[in-house]
Amino acid sequence: MLPLDPLALPLQPVIVALVVVAAVYDYRLRRIPNWLTISGVVAGLSLNLILFGLPGLAGAAQALLFGFAVYFVLYLLRAMGAGDVKLMAGVSAIAGPDRWFTIFVLISLIGGVTALVLILIKGRFRHTFWNVGFIASQLMRFRSPAIGREELDIKNPKALTLPAGVRIAAGVLAFLLAGAIWPR
After folding, report:
1. Which residue ranges make up each domain of the chain?
2. Around Cβ 142, how many Cβ atoms within 10 Å?
3. What is the pLDDT of residue 120?
4. Contact 37/82 with Cβ under 8 angstroms?
């Protein structure tokens, strides 16, 4: 079972402000500004140092690296934008090593459900089914699927995309809500 330890109270408004502002930017402009993501990283590292000392700083740095690394792989496959990678690094730095993975899982679940709804609404189930097969075959050959099919590149206007900032915000808010409802 995934841990739902709530974040320390001083971290909660900071992470909420970060993801809500990022979601608004990403929804409206399809980009997340560097000043926001860098602020999230700095706030995460600083607050964890202030609240928990050097172990808190070390944990925040470790979480930052994990969150960044997971999303960076998706960026290399052209499935994620650079702002999304940096936002997840900031979220991870604030959340710390014990919570970043749970937040990542929630973001993934919310993204999957949202994608299914969007696919059904747009009537692209068959097309998506074939793309999933193509993606799997390309990844087994250690190739980026976006190179073979332009609609699989997140920057292509033909791509069916969801703003990752919105998904990240939904995952963080779901984590905070679950932690408040089912505290450990």
Report:
1. 11-124+160-181
2. 6
3. 85
4. no
